[in-house]
Design a protein that fits this description.
Largest sheet: 7 strands, mixed
Helix content: 10-25%
Shape: globular
Structural class: alpha/beta
Distance between the termini: 43 Å
Oligomer: single chain
Number of helices: 8
Strand content: 15-25%
Radius of gyration: 18 Å
């Protein structure tokens, strides 16, 4: 039997960016990746440098990925989730990770050298020994300098990687597409450029599985749900591309809970916003396969013919798990 390897689900400063003074963090010495997983962060920061996409693992290898969102406040709940990830990884090693945005509350960070990098990122996630490929959330945009600061930190950290605001890479039989959902949700520049890039990249993909990840969901049973108009905008602008280009999984945060939502057009939806910021109640069970307002993280495992997604709580308990074969996702849910 082929052994699964675990994964955990996470560029240069813009000219003229001014940073507010903060206590500085020290760059961390690179220790090298754990196991067979390649560190592709440098390759992702220089797109077009090769004929093929950067790959964490060869296409014939299974992968295990850790994903989490809505976490970065430096509090004890964030720490509890991080320690649970570390305990889980001792028995089920991750290949790499993904963040689903809201990396630093309440308004991002002013500098790639801000002191909170040590406390709220490296101290929490360096012990996992993996690269974590990040995306931006709405709180990462509250401070104008933060997106560029988070990109710049990629050159200084051995675990954090946000090479640019949206990007794609390979890992085993999966192609991952990292989105900046903020302009998509708010219909702001460069929404058209990003969506055109996504459609083109999806159409060109020859991967067995296509996983798109970012911050804002298109569907959620949490507090954002039907109440906020911009999620309707996500459905209008992003969902048709996901369905038409045959995406397998759309993985997000934003609502502070854990949810598995029934598919639409073959796209299966997962929300993993239990990374440590205050929990929020679920509001509806419409088209929901499972959901709980708890802290925890998501584990995605992919073989050539099968995908498994599970939610794990802070006590290490598997709260929910679902698997399906390629081409046979769970049945669609009828939505108005």
């Amino acid at each position: 039997m082929r052994r699964l390897i675990p994964i955990l689900i996470l560029a240069a400063l813009a000219p003229g960016c001014a940073f507010r003074p903060e206590a500085e963090a020290s760059p961390r010495a690179w220790r090298g990746p754990v196991g067979d997983a390649a560190d592709i962060c440098a390759a992702l920061t220089t797109p077009g440098s090769g004929a093929s996409l950067p790959a964490v693992l060869p296409s014939d290898r299974p992968v295990r990925v850790l994903a989490f969102g809505d976490f970065g406040d430096g509090g004890r709940d964030q720490s509890a989730v991080a320690r649970a990830m570390e305990r889980y990884a001792r028995q089920h090693r991750f290949d790499f990770g993904l963040t689903l945005g809201d990396n630093f509350y309440p308004q991002g960070l002013a500098s790639p050298m801000a002191g909170r990098w040590d406390r709220d990122w490296e101290a929490m996630y360096d012990p996992l020994g993996i690269r974590i490929y990040a995306t931006l959330g709405n709180h990462d945009y509250q401070r104008r300098a933060s997106p560029d600061a988070e990109i710049a930190r990629s050159r200084l950290s051995s675990s954090w990687c946000l090479p640019r605001r949206y990007y794609t890479f390979m890992a085993g039989p999966v192609q991952f597409f990292a989105l900046d959902t903020n302009p998509i949700a708010r219909n702001r520049t460069p929404v058209r450029e990003q969506l055109a890039w996504l459609r083109s990249a999806l159409r060109a993909s020859r991967a067995t599985w296509k996983v798109v990840y970012g911050h804002h969901p298109v569907y959620t049973g949490g507090e954002h749900g039907e109440a906020l108009g911009y999620l309707a905008g996500m459905r209008e602008r992003l969902l048709p591309i996901l369905k038409e280009e045959r995406v397998d999984v759309y993985l997000t945060g934003h609502d502070h809970d854990l949810e598995a939502l029934k598919p639409e057009g073959g796209v299966v939806f997962f929300v993993s916003g239990g990374g440590g910021k205050d929990k929020r109640p679920l509001k509806t069970d419409r088209c929901r396969a499972w959901g709980r307002s708890v802290y925890g993280f998501t584990v995605l495992e992919a073989r050539k013919d099968e995908m498994t997604v599970r939610y794990v709580g802070t006590d290490g308990e598997v709260l929910y798990e679902t698997s399906w074969k390629k081409g046979s996702p769970p049945a669609d849910c009828s939505r108005p």
